[in-house]
Amino acid sequence: MQLVDSHVHLNFAVFEPDLEAIAQRWREAGVFRLVHSCVEPSEFPAIQALAQRFPELYFAVGLHPLDATQWQPGAEAEIDRLAQSDPKVVAIGETGLDFFKADNQVQQEQAFWAHLQIAQRLNLPVIIHCRDAAVAMSELLHRFWQTHGPVRGVMHCWAGSPAETEWFLDLGFYVSFSGIVTFKNASQIHASAAMMPSDRLLIETDCPFLAPVPKRGEKRNEPAYVRYVAAKVAQLRQTSLDSLARETTANACQLFSLPTS
């Protein structure tokens, strides 16, 4: 069985002491591809070094919406340049909107719009963070489609309702579920995972955050635990783990243009 962890943050200091052992565990769990997200362009060299160290690791470049205060003239050109500087860059992001922890909506939307332009220009998918911002996100994406045309990507660590999920499916996006889907009281997310079309579904850990049940009490999530996410999503969809693994792996390889062997 092969799995893809479509969203990791392995450059965090919490992984430094035993990263080789962590890699061994993800390989033993069947994780044969990983996509490393980026929260600010200054991370690029460290993430690039990890991608060189681990052949199965691919990565993105972008600015997280909670760091949108750093958006300055020249940031778009810098992200564009970095995205073209390494063939293992497979996405733009993570980017998006987060109104849970910040209220600088205009600034976030300006930065997000620029990321969409880069992604479309380079024909790369965009990794979208959306927290307490589904309505604004949907409206902005519709505006972008009307003025610039479609862009492809994934709603990562998705926690929206089935109705909100439909908004982004209608725009052609993939939807990725994290360890939150394993939480007992996440009924809205359970319903969204159950109704997803099989060709748009992804799974992720978003490690080191959001460790899934039965590892929820641990302070550090890791890529091997994506198997628990896969098992829960398979249960919700009343399918086998093997089938869910095949579907989500094919989807991730399709979206991010990942090698399949």
Describe this structure in words.
By secondary structure, the protein is an alpha/beta fold. 41% of the residues lie in helices and 16% in strands. The chain is built from 9 helices and 8 strands. An 8-stranded parallel sheet has the order 1-2-3-4-5-6-7-8. Helix 3 packs parallel to helix 4 and helix 8 crosses helix 9. The radius of gyration is 17 Å and the shape is globular.
Give the termini separation: 13 Å
As residue ranges, the low-confidence spans are none
Largest sheet: 8 strands, parallel
Taking all Cα atoms into account, the compactness measure Rg is: 17 Å
Query: Strand arrangement, largest sheet?
Result: 1-2-3-4-5-6-7-8
Work out the strand percent: 15-25%
Give me the number of helical elements.
9
Order of helices and strands: EHEHEHEHEHEHEHEHH
Q: Any idea what the shape is?
A: globular
- Average pLDDT, to the nearest integer? 97
DSSP strand tally:
8
Instruction: Tell me roughly what share of residues is in helical segments.
Output: 40-55%
Sheet/helix structural class? alpha/beta
